[in-house]
Amino acid sequence: MRYCKQCILPDTRPGIFLDDDGICSACHGHRDKETKIDWTSRAKAFETLVAETKTQSTSYDCIVPVSGGKDSWYQVIKAKEHGLSVLAVTWRTPARTEIGQRNLDRMIEKLGVDHIDYTISPDVERRFMKATFEERGTTGLPMHMALFAIPIRLAVQFRIPLILWGENPQLEYGGNELERLSNTLDADWLSKHGCLESTDASYWLGKEGLSETDLHAYRLPASPDFTVRSVFLGAFYKWNSYENTRIAQDHGFVYEQGAERTGTWDFADIDCEFISLHHFLKWYKFGFTRAFDTLSVQIRYGMITRDQAVAEIRRRGLDAPKADIATFCAFQGKSEDWFWAVCEKFRNPDVWVRSEGRWTIPDFLIPDWDWGKPESEMEPS
Ligand SMILES: [Zn+2]
To answer: What is the whole-number distance in angstroms between the Cα of residue 293 and the centre of ligand 1?
Structure first.
């Protein structure tokens, strides 16, 4: 495992490539944002897109997929600044937090937009998550499938010509040069980067008793008779999570300062109790945690040094999201032993080595990392 020399991302992270100087594609993405991308012409391109959208729309101009989080506030604010009429669409997580609900309610009220809170049967969500967790080691697949499919399907059905997504993840967290400079979220992007494990809804048919009807909400429109443009706002305006939070706060977004749910940001991932599990599984599969991502962004923003980020990883330790794991197991009607046994199934042998009765990662970022006691490492303390 190799780590970027500028940030702390390992080359096991999907989409991360280290160049000959040991600099990762996410750091190159940040450099692109500062030097390579002409933001003035991108802003003009957005104005053109808005004008074209206005000539095509017959009701709402655009759908903004929202969770209630800081980024979705920013997306709605930007859309409205450009005079776009917005239909906000949410895939409703089965584990919405109290603060997530509050922010969503406040957003609809304070930003003054129409909203669909699309709820899939919790029993379907439960069975689908069980199937993807046990077979692919991901709890986040149904979430990703639904939150991409629902806005796309509604846009086609309601004849809404534009969908305004948030950041371009390949620009913020690492991708190849073409992907970093792209602005489009299409079927190709979804299959490569949608966290769908190269599957679609049909693949899961019959697993955990999932029926055609159960899977409706997760399906993309089969042969759409209406063209929807589906773009990342972060491809037109320079994305900055801290700046977005400040703008969202100015309009009424709230978060609990110092209450970190996952990673090192108290203002992110606060809407859903299950998102932390999606991030946590990366420890087994790729040998890093959400804090590696957020601290690396902070390094790129010039807020901390690489040494400070390394020290923070050491200070936090593994930091498993125990409360959220307990909530997930209760939702599934399963024991936590089941959860840990499934995690263990997905421990990646290309990353992990078993020695003296415990699992370790050779050449880990923190040489004196506490790998736990032999045999008991998996037990939450
Ligand atoms: Zn880097």
So the answer is: 10
Rounded distance from Cα 128 to ligand 1 centre (Å): 34
Rounded to whole angstroms, the Cα distance separating 69 from 244 reads 10
Question: 29: CA distance to ligand 1 center in Å?
Answer: 9
- Dihedral sign, Cα of residue 47, residue 48, residue 51, residue 52: negative
Instruction: Give residue 303 CA to ligand 1 midpoint distance, Å.
Output: 14
Residue 11 CA to ligand 1 center (angstroms) comes to 9
Spatial separation of the C-alpha atoms in residues 347 and 365, rounded to whole Å:
18
Rounded distance between C-alpha atoms, residue 15 and residue 21, angstroms: 17
C-alpha 62 to ligand 1 mean position (Å): 34
Cα(16) to ligand 1 centroid in Å equals 8
SS3 sequence of 119-158: CCCHHHHHHHHHHHHHHHCCCCHHHHHHHHHHHHHHHHHH
Mean pLDDT of all residues in the chain?
92
User: If you measure from the C-alpha of residue 280 to the centroid of ligand 1, how many angstroms do you get, rounded to a whole number?
Assistant: 20
The helix (H) or strand (E) run that includes residue 354 is: strand 353-355
Distance 34 CA to ligand 1 centre (A): 15
In the predicted structure, residue 65 carries a pLDDT above the cut 60:
yes
pLDDT, tens digit (0-9, with 9 covering 90-100), for 216-246: 999 998 888 899 999 999 999 999 988 999 9
Cα-based distances in Å from 330 to 119, 186, 324, 348: 20, 36, 10, 27
Cα–Cα distances in angstroms (integers) from residue 364 to residues 27, 86, 140, 351, 372, in the given order: 20, 46, 26, 10, 14
User: CB burial class (10 A; 0-12, 13-18, 19+) of residue 251?
Assistant: middle
Give all domains of the chain, ordered by start, each with its CATH number: 37-242 (3.40.50)
Distance 9 CA to ligand 1 centre (A): 6
Find the distance separating the first CA and the last CA of the chain, reported in whole Å. 27
Cα(296) to centroid of ligand 1, in Å? Answer: 7
CA of 299 to the centre of ligand 1 (A): 9
